[in-house]
Each structure stands twice: as C-alpha cells, then as structure tokens.
C-alpha cells in the first residue's frame, strides 16, 4: 500500500561558477531511490540539456551528466527540502518546506537566473521567496520535463525550444 510519507530532497549540484540554477519541485520515487536527479528514463531533462549544449544524448553515466552541468555553468536543486507525498506526482505534495535557496544564491553570486522545471517548483518558490530574491536574478518558468502528462502536452522538440530561453546563461554552448 502506497501511503503518504515524509520525503527529503537531495543535495544541490553546483559548480564554483554557476550562472543558472534549475529548480525542480521534489525528485520522484525513481530519482530518490537512485539518489540521482531525473533518473526516470522517461523524464526528458537530460535530453533537453544535451540538446541545448549541442551534444548528442547517448545515455551517459550520472557522473558524466553532472560534469556536463558544471562545465556549462548549470546548478541543479529543488524548491522543496521536504514534504509529505504519496507516489511521485507534484499534485500529491503536501506540507512542503523549502530548501534554503537564498543561502545558495548568496554562496554563488554568479547565478544570474533561476529556471523552474514545472509549475509546482515555481509555485513553491513564489510562496516562499519571490519577494526576497535579488531583482537582478531572472526568474524563468519552464515546461516540466516530467513524463507525467500535463494539461498542455508538448513534444520533446517543443520543450527544447521553450528551454532554449536559458541558453544565454549556459557557457560554451553550440547552436542547435
């Protein structure tokens, strides 16, 4: 029986010279079990990142994916530090407490933008932080990379096009 349980996010992934922070909401069950961001093979996050930097996605190791993020100035974390959730759906999240995003931004002053991977991440951030984030940090709401169907389904190509808004914050990328 799948019951509501308290779950915790994973540590942030951030290099010394991050320019953009991508915030999810809370990792799904597959990711939490493997302790790897976007571990569900149906999630399109990694395919989108690789497309944005002009590389072919050939199912690299998790360590290689993390190296790509850091090399291209992308930090990764979640809006939520812990919550109660049954299953993996964002719509099932209750009683969330945010991660300390302001401390991360303070420790990494090179971050110029926050990209929100989906509506829940953005909603949680707005609830807890919108009025306290430095005004020079761009806030960019992106379509979710989740495999869960949404009200506004998009193809991978459409998501890549939408996510290309963040390319100006990614270092050393190639044109698509």
From TrEMBL:
Keywords: Glycosidase, Hydrolase
First-level EC class: hydrolase
MF terms (GO), sorted A to Z: DNA-deoxyinosine glycosylase activity
EC number annotated for this UniProt entry: 3.2.2.15
Hydrolase keyword on record: yes
Family matches, as SUPFAM superfamilies: Uracil-DNA glycosylase-like
Database matches in CDD domains: UDG-F6_HDG
Domain Uracil-DNA glycosylase-like per the UniProt entry, residue ranges: 17-163
Name of this protein: DNA-deoxyinosine glycosylase
Organism for this UniProt entry: Sporolactobacillus kofuensis
Classification lineage: Bacteria, Bacillati, Bacillota, Bacilli, Bacillales
